[in-house]
Design brief:
Length: 457
């Protein structure tokens, strides 16, 4: 609970509209996309870095938990205020402060929506590649906290490749500045990567310097279907061996194909074992050659059908299949858990085969789709409200994690650990590594007030 002394200091610091205390208001900031729920004692909305700093000083002095929150779209429970305390809504930090075309950087506040940054820089012929599926509402600060990826990661990498510098408020209220606009910068320790993927447990980002690229001139898309996931995986490896790095390489398994076809009726072959969506981008006069090479590789690997879309309208039609997977699954079962394991891309067929075994063992429908180019699989466990369903799903989730680790994989590729996977983190990390991470946390946050209970069991 927040004591009266701390509450009075917060009321003095903030405008009345920047602090929420009514139960119905606080309930709106109690959850994220996992459905986990815990109502905070108060919600605060600082308007500048100095206010963030002072809130942290108050919280640290009174040992009040603080949970930073952007859009609340995370899939690991990272913004759920498990210990009550304060939710710090970063909604007022929503400005693109600068787009520097000469130096290919943007300076942004953490609550800028990722898709809005895309639009702003693309109007100037520039490109910010990270494109998580939630980019229409997810924020840059949340992307940094989770090291978000997306479909373009196979060619362009994930958020960590594009963060050049950060302004961060520490748990004790200190403001630190890590990195800069300079491409070459070895002045002191490189602290910037430490905050990326830290899930809001080490500091609160108040400003970010992001790297931009020139916008690719054009793109083309190919949709290919295969009898088996093995055929599709061999195609992915063969495309890369042919020195083509597509912008995206997405896959759907047979259950996902069936769900999308039942939902959209777009003529997908429901007898197919796998579907690939491959997009190439770059200079327009080179793309015809690249996409035809991709089609040739597909034909060498037992493709059933391959369609090429050269114009935007046709590309959008093909991408409907990928964009509609989540919506199509709602029709299959009322409840869903979406796990995002990662395995070496050559082992995707083995992982899919393991999920079929796990599905049969536990009586849980499992639908897979994801990023074939980087091995990040979204394993969706669909279930209902029958007695024993929850227990069966928990058993299936454990088996999925064990199977991924057995194939040299990780229990999370881009959703993070948060609350959802904290009890499993030791399956991927040994005791010495976890111990070092805990010491880093204690160094930054000795009173354990910043997003407590996340990541570590």
């Amino acid at each position: 609970m927040i004591n009266a002394a701390a509450l009075n200091r917060l009321k003095t610091l903030l405008a009345p509209e920047d602090i929420l205390l009514a139960p119905e208001d606080r309930a709106c900031y109690a959850f994220d996309a996992t459905g986990r729920n815990r109502v905070p004692d108060a919600v605060v909305f600082p308007r500048n870095t100095e206010a963030v700093s002072e809130i942290m000083r108050i919280a640290d002095g009174h040992r009040i938990p603080v949970v930073p929150r952007g859009a609340g779209s995370g899939l690991s429970g990272g913004s759920v205020p498990q210990s009550g305390g304060l939710v710090m809504g970063m909604n007022r930090f929503d400005q693109i402060l600068e787009i520097d075309a000469d130096n290919l950087v943007a300076v942004v506040e953490p609550c800028v929506v990722t898709a809005e940054l895309h639009k702003a820089v693309e109007r100037l012929g520039l490109f910010y590649p990270p494109d998580p599926a939630s980019m229409g509402h997810a924020t840059i600060g949340g992307n940094i906290a989770e090291n978000a990826g997306g479909m373009r990661a196979v060619k362009y990498g994930v958020t960590k490749e594009y963060v050049m510098g950060l302004e961060v408020a520490l748990p004790n209220g200190d403001i630190v500045h890590a990195g800069s606009k300079c491409v070459k910068d070895v002045v002191g320790y490189n602290l910037t990567p430490l905050f990326i993927g830290s899930e809001g447990t080490l500091g609160i980002v108040t400003r970010a310097i992001l790297k931009l690229l020139p916008l690719p001139e054009a793109k083309m898309t190919l949709m290919a279907t295969f009898p088996t996931m093995g055929d599709a995986a061999r195609t992915v490896s063969a495309v890369i061996r042919n020195r083509i790095i597509p912008a995206t390489m997405e896959f759907l398994d047979r259950h996902a194909i069936g769900a999308v076809e039942a939902y959209l009726k777009m003529g997908l072959p429901t007898q197919a074992g796998a579907l690939l969506l491959i997009e190439v981008d770059g200079e327009k006069d080179q793309l015809d050659r690249q996409i035809e090479r991709v089609r040739a590789v597909c034909e060498e690997n037992n493709v059933m059908d391959a369609r090429i879309a050269r114009e935007k309208a046709a590309q959008d039609e093909l991408w409907k299949a990928r964009r509609s997977v989540s919506a199509s699954m709602v029709r299959l079962k009322p409840r869903r858990i979406n796990e995002d394991i990662s395995v070496p891309r050559s082992r995707i067929p083995e992982m899919i085969a393991q999920t079929e075994i796990i599905s049969e063992k536990h009586g849980v429908l499992i639908v897979n789709f994801g990023h074939a180019g980087d091995g990040n699989i979204h394993v969706n466990l669909l279930f209902g409200d029958k007695p024993g369903d929850d227990e069966r799903v928990r058993g299936a989730v454990k088996d999925v994690f064990e199977a991924a680790i057995g194939l040299g994989g990780r229990i999370s590729g881009e959703h993070g650990i948060g609350l959802a996977k904290r009890d499993y983190i030791g399956w991927n990390l040994d005791a010495a590594t976890l111990g070092m991470m805990r010491r880093v946390k204690r160094m930054f946050d000795p009173n354990n007030i910043l997003n407590p209970g996340k990541i570590f069991p």
